[in-house]
Amino acid sequence: MVNRLADATSPYLRQHADNPVHWWEWTPEALAEAARRDVPILLSIGYAACHWCHVMAHESFEDDAVAAAMNAGFVCIKVDREERPDLDAVYMNATVALTGQGGWPMTCFLTPDGRPFFAGTYYPKEQFLQLLSAVEDTWRSRRDEVEQASDQISGELRKMASALPAEGPPVSAQLCDAAVAAVLADEDTVRGGFGGAPKFPPAGLLEALLRHYERTGSAQALAAVQRAGAAMARGGIHDQLAGGFARYSVDNAWVVPHFEKMLYDNALLLRAYAHWARRTADPLARRVAGQTADFLLRDLSADGMFFSSLDADADGSEGSTYVWTPEQLTAVLGPDDGRWAAEVFAVTPAGTFEGGASVLQLPADPEDTGRLRRVSAALLAARAERVQPGRDAKVVTAWNGLAITALADAAVALERPDLLEAAARCARAVLDLHLVDGRLRRAGLGGQVGDSAAILEDYAALATGLLTLYQLTAQQHWLDSAAGLIDTALAHFGDPERPGRWFDTADDAERLVLRPSDPIDGATPAGASLLAEALLTAAHLVDGGRAGRYLRAATETLAVHTPVLARAARSAGHWLAVAEAAVRGPLQIAVAVDAPDSALLAAARRLAPGGTVVVGGAVDSSELLAGRDRVGGADAAYVCRGTVCDLPVTDVRELAAALEASV
User: Start and end of every Spermatogenesis-associated protein 20-like TRX domain (predicted)?
Assistant: First the structure.
């Protein structure tokens, strides 16, 4: 037997290629080997940036005695949750059902045909050894109990997968208002954000609250965005030197992060901060949006696409790259600047992290901004000499789709054409590499695409990114590619028994214990909510027959999922953002121009509420501009809500007034 992970397309799996464990990837051959040996499967699921995954690897998977026990009694399979989110979803549901909580590393024991019978998360070495012995003994001596338990658990998982209520309230302004009220009732008005520790960046909710503010003028909704946005921007979860956000804060005040930096978090937060900056011209929002975009381009990009993450650890030590003591500041900056930096960045002798070190914060902007720039540059240069966190260079289709959308939105908000160029470059690269024979693949590494089939979120997130590019460039190929992805999603991911419900895996994907279908927005939006956004946008950009099909599918999707909004609004941030757009029509702005640098078109993009469909061009150059021409020799904007359009306006003040009237 051998370890088979050296040629994996996942950096996480390659991290385990030198383990004495005889790891397999998840393949039919691995399951067949378990059946041949008549032993259970030990399934370990994690991801490259996961701190506790590294801890368990060092304690157990690199230990010869533990590996020997694993190899003797089990077929051991290692899975990257980011490469195989379908497997992660199935067995995370089992873990939560059995233990009441989930997390990574996830440790599951399965029958050779994949049915789970025991599950947990991180186990210290001695406890893990005891567990291996107990499971192996149970498998040998009480097989009937194992079979009974696995059947029962699999049955419960199938029930959970179809637990979405049959009916909910209709999509309406009242539903959105009630959902926003429920979200705001759970706001931490002192520290910003929602709920307690650990605190996760609520990017989807911020986007939804901004759209609600634009629709209703709610000062409370905007204030919640400002409190959360400012608290995160000034806290330790935000890298004050290099930009970018960590995965979450371990405390309720955003001070100490779990240091891993994920592409999806930063893409979603870039979109939210860009929207906030565009809507209010808040200088903090604008600065953070720019820093986040620069972080993506500098630290997570190669060959036009974007990597998955930066690790929480550097050389086995969590956060060591990022934290500082007062003495370290002085050593880099000298006594005067060192004392000043300690005050500005809230670095104290007691520290906020382990060993008396502090995570840099920026409680307030200093008056001397030039000094801040100089000091920050010196600290960043010194930090670059430290051991750097590992990087997961895997390219995930869905997360690159989120980045394309965010960069394109930020290009408008920050008036940075380079961000639009980066978004287009990424889209071209992803389509060239990950679209194989008309079907998307989930992930690639080093210019090679992996074998894992894309899931619903991959199709939907990439389609939305392409639709955003089409609106900003008027290049038809972006719309054609987006429509092709949407058509594939409609053909392969829908539930034929319930229009509007979507599976996360395609109808021709590998058959698992169950076919996952999770409607809840989590760290990333649900595949179904992403598809609802793509459908709603595309319905107003494509030709008539297709448009009707897309709009019907969008309407059915929102209608089926209103119970999520009504009952769990905090877990439905992206659903709420899409519903807010739908309630407004969505708004469409078609600008008839004779040149792409039209001031009226630029104003339309700048003033448009989130979720608005905006196109510009000559008469009849797109579906929204059919029969709509310039007026009296001037560029003209046509504002529409659903199928009802206002009279055209020809200057920016009239356009602003027309959009204001839509509130």
Answer: 3-157
Strand residues in 295-390 grouped as ranges (E): 301-302, 305-306, 309-310, 313-314, 317-318
And the tokens for 221? Answer: 């909704």
Contacts for 541-550: CB closer than 8 Å, 24+ residues apart = 541/467, 541/470, 541/471, 541/479, 541/613, 541/615, 541/622, 541/623, 541/624, 542/479, 542/483, 542/623, 543/623, 544/623, 546/483, 547/623, 549/490, 550/486
- Exposure string of 43-61, with b = 16+ CB inside 10 Å and e = fewer, is bbbbbbbbbbbbbbbebbb
Instruction: Count the residues in the chain.
Output: 663
DSSP letter for each residue of 396-425: EHHHHHHHHHHHHHHHHHHT-HHHHHHHHH
Within 10 angstroms of residue 442's Cβ, the number of other Cβ atoms is 25
Q: Which helix (H) or strand (E) holds 110?
A: strand 106-110
Cβ 606 vs Cβ 274: under 8 Å? no
Apex 409 CA angle, 407 and 410, nearest 5:
60
The span from the CA of 433 to the CA of 430, in Å, is 5
CA 155 – CA 145 distance, rounded (Å):
15
Task: Write out the DSSP string of 241-298.
Answer: TT--B-SEESSTTS-SEE--EEHHHHHHHHHHHHHHHHHH--HHHHHHHHHHHHHHHH
Which residue, 129, 20, 180, 98, is CA-closest to 576? 180
The 8 Å CB, 24+ separation contacts for 324-332 are 324/357, 324/358, 324/360, 324/379, 325/349, 325/351, 325/356, 325/357, 325/358, 329/379, 332/378, 332/379, 332/382
What average pLDDT does this structure show over 245-255?
Answer: 97
Q: The domain 173-312+392-583 is classified under which CATH number: 1.50.10.10, 1.10.10.10, 3.30.465.10, 3.20.20.140?
A: 1.50.10.10
Residue 162: what pLDDT?
Answer: 61
Condensed to tens digits (0 to 9), the pLDDT of residues 28-86 reads: 999 999 999 999 999 999 998 888 999 999 999 999 999 999 999 999 999 999 999 99
Residue 474: left if φ>0, alpha if ψ -120 to 50, beta else—which one? Answer: left
Identity of residue 384: A
pLDDT above 90 (res 313): no
How many CB atoms are closer than 10 A to CB 366?
A: 15
Q: How many CB atoms lie within 10 A of CB 166?
A: 7
Instruction: List the structure tokens of 57.
Output: 């690897």
Percent of the chain with pLDDT strictly greater than 70 = 98
What pLDDT band is residue 158 in, cutting at 50, 70 and 90? confident
Amino acid at 580: E
Reply yes or no on domain 11-161 having CATH 2.40.30.10: no
The pLDDT tens digits of the residues spanning 547-576 come to 999 999 999 999 999 999 999 999 999 999
- Report CA-CA distances (Å) from 465 to 90, 314, 356, 388, 414: 28, 33, 44, 31, 18
For residue 71, give every residue at least 6 positions away whose Cβ sits within 8 Å of its Cβ, in sequence order, or none: 1, 20, 21, 22
